Amino acid sequence: MTLAYPDPRLMTDAELAAYLQAATDAMEQLRFDWPRHARLEQLEPHRAYRIWMLLAGRGFGKTRTGAETVRKWAEGRPGGHYAVIAKTHREVFNVCFNARRAGLLAVIPPRLVRTFNKSEPYLELTNGAIIRGFGAQDPDTLRGYDFDGAWLDEYAAWPVQSAQGVFDMTWFCLREAQDPHMVISTTPKPLPHVKKLLTRAAKQAARKTRPRVVITRGRTLDNAANLSAEALEELMEQYAGTRLGRQELNAEMLDDVEGALWKNAWIEAGRVDKDDVPKLVRTVVSVDPADTVSETSDETGIVAVGRGEDGDHYVLADRSMRIAGMAAARRIWQCYLDVDADLVIYEGSSAWMRDILVDAWAMMQKEGLLPGGDPPLDVVQARVSKRVRAEPVAARYEVEPPRVHHVGAFPQMEDQLTTWTPESGDSPDRLDALVHGVTYLRSKESRRATVASPLARARPVGRAGPR
After folding, report:
1. Is this structure's pTM higher than 0.85?
2. Domains of the chain in sequence order
3. Residues in contact with 462: Cβ distance below 8 Å, sequence separation at least 6, in sequence order
4. Phi, psi of 223 (to 5 degrees)
5. Which of 100, 207, 254, 313 has CA atoms 20 to 30 A from the CA of 421?
6. Nearest 5°: phi and psi at 54?
C-alpha cells in the first residue's frame, strides 16, 4: 500500500506547524514505546510478585530494563516516590540516571521531566512522581524515607558489609506502599545476599506458593542484535567457555571451588574504589616471568600492589598477559609509571629477567619516558612451596575486615584466586605475582616490640624498618 503524504507547499504556516508537531509527537511515541522495543524477558512480570530479580550477563539490557520499569511505575502513579540504589553515588548518577541509551533520563520523554537535580540525584516528573538516587554504602542514608517501589542495580557488586542492610532498610522504606515492588538487576556472584533471594525463590517454587520472588535469567547473546558485532566476537573468542565468561556472559552462578584458598565473598568484602585508597607508603610492581610466548605458555604475571598508611594492602593493577622479552619489560615499566611505584620486584628463577628490565629501562630513558638513575629493581626467591607462600596472603583476605583490597575489579586474576587449589599442580601467573607483591611488602613493614613494666608505660623499642 502506498501512503500519501500532504504537500507542505499547499499548507498554511499554521497547518505546516501543526503537521510537524504531530509528526514529532508520533516519532517520540514510537521511540519511547518500551513494550514495542523490549524482548519478552525484559517486560515486568504480570504475576503478583514483590521482588523481580534479573540475573543476566553483561550487555543483556539490565540497566535499560530497570530504568524502564521505574519509568512505568512513576508514570502510572502521580505523586509516587521511588528509590534507585547502586553501589555508590557515582554509579547511581552515571549509570542509573545518565547512561546514554539506558539511564532514566534516556528512557523518560523530556516533556515528562519537571526537575532533575544532579547533586542528589533527584528526578521529578510533571505528574509529581519523584525518583531519588542513593549509594549502597550505608543503610542509614535511606532511613526516614517512604517509597512506592525501588530499583537495586548491580546488587552483586554492592559492598558485602552493607548490602543486606541496605536491602532490609529499603523494605522498611516500602512499609506504606499499597503495592510495593522491587526490581533487582545484576550479574550473578555467589554472595550471601544474592544467594538468600535465590534460596527464597527456590523454596516458593517447591511449595508452589505465590511467587513473591521472580527470577529472570539471561545471557549476553540474548541481546546480540543491539551489541557491537566486533566487540561481541572478541568477547566470545576470549572468554567463551572460561569461568569468567560463564559468569559475565552466560550469567551462571559459580560457587566457590572446594579446596581453593580464596573465596569470592572475601574479595568482595575488601573491594574498594580508587577514591577510598589511603596514602600509600610503598608500592611495587610484582612480576612472575614467563620464559616463552606461545598459545600454551604461561602469562607473565604483572600485578601492582601498595601498602597503605593503615597497614592494609591495595591491589592497584593487573597488567598480566602472554608476553615475554622486551615487550614484557616495557609493559612492566609502563605499569611502574602508571601506578607511581617505588620499585619492580621479580621472581628470581628467570635469570634473563633482570638483564631485559635493565635494557628496557635504558631504552625508555632515552625516549624520555623514565627518569634518570639506575632501575629500581629487587629480586624475590621462591624458597618454599606455592601453598606455603599463598596461605598467609589468602589469610589477609579472610580476616574481618579484610587486610587486602582490590581497587576496582580484576576478573581474570580473581578467577585464578578463587579456582586454584594447592593440589592442582598448576602455577597461575597472576596469583603468583600478587602473592610475591604482598609478601614482599609485608617483609618491609615496620616491626616494633613493646616492653611492659608495672612501673612505667610501655614504650616501643628497636628500630623501624624502611618506609
Report:
1. no
2. 34-238 (3.40.50.300), 264-443 (3.30.420.320)
3. 447, 448, 449
4. -110, 25
5. 313
6. -95, 105
* In contact, 319 and 331? CB cutoff 8 Å: yes
Task: State the residue for C-alpha cell 610475591.
Answer: 436
Q: Helix, strand or coil for residue 120?
A: coil
DSSP state of 118: T
Residues of the chain with pLDDT under 50: 447-467
Give the helix/strand (H/E) hosting 274: none
Span 84-140, pLDDT tens digits: 999 999 999 999 999 999 999 999 999 999 999 998 899 999 999 999 999 999 999
Is the CB of residue 77 less than 8 Å from the CB of residue 208?
no
Grouping H, G, I as helix, E, B as strand and the rest as coil, residue 237 is helix
For the chain, the first-to-last Cα distance in angstroms comes to 81
For residue 45, how far is the Cα from the chain centroid? 27
Distance of CA 119 to the CA centre of its chain: 23
Q: What are phi and psi of 137, to 5 degrees?
A: -80, -25
Question: What is the per-residue pLDDT for 62?
Answer: 96
